[in-house]
Specification:
2 helices, alpha+beta, 118 residues
């Protein structure tokens, strides 16, 4: 058994509403496409089943109270320098709503894992 390799990283989480739109496209989709163009290693979008934001209105997926504005989280993990360089590229997308969170984290790579293409 080999010891996994670890490296320090920064996790960017962008919280927006599912119905937030940028030029006829969902904001979360625009963030993913900008991350891809910026050469970041990956981006994942997670749809919430219930939540509330600055409006204090609770949005839920429950059948009796269907919502069209569920919370959505876009998560991207990379080096601190690359994540911080990406922030200005999404500023206009979240300036009127949304929350950007940065967390220090550690990437764990086990033997045989994919290498980053940089």
């Amino acid at each position: 058994m080999t010891t996994p390799q670890t490296e320090r990283a920064l996790r960017l989480t962008v919280l927006v509403g599912e119905s937030d739109i940028w030029h006829h496209r969902p904001v979360f989709t625009e963030i993913v496409h900008r991350a891809h163009r910026a050469g970041l290693p990956g981006a994942s979008v997670f749809r919430g089943i219930e939540g509330f934001g600055a409006s204090s209105m609770i949005h839920t997926q429950r059948l009796l109270s269907l919502s069209e504005d569920l919370p959505v989280a876009v998560v991207i993990v990379d080096t601190e320098d690359r994540i911080r360089a990406f922030l200005p590229l999404i500023e206009e997308l979240v300036a009127k709503g949304g929350l950007v969170v940065l967390d220090e984290c550690e990437i764990v790579r086990f033997g045989g894992g994919r290498e980053r293409g940089r």
